[in-house]
Amino acid sequence: MYDILVIGAGPAGASAALIAAKSGKKTLLLDSNQSITKKAWIENHYGVREITGPALVELGQEQAKKFGAELVQTKVENIEKASEGLRVDTENGSFEARHVILATGLFTDLAEKIGVQTKSGTEPRVKTIVDVDALGKTSVEGIWAAGGIAGKSLHTIIVAGDGANVAINIISELNGERYVDHDVLK
Ligand SMILES: Cc1cc2nc3c(=O)[nH]c(=O)nc-3n(C[C@H](O)[C@H](O)[C@H](O)COP(=O)(O)OP(=O)(O)OC[C@H]3O[C@@H](n4cnc5c(N)ncnc54)[C@H](O)[C@@H]3O)c2cc1C
Question: What top-level branch of life does the organism fall under (predicted)?
Answer without folding.
Answer: Bacteria
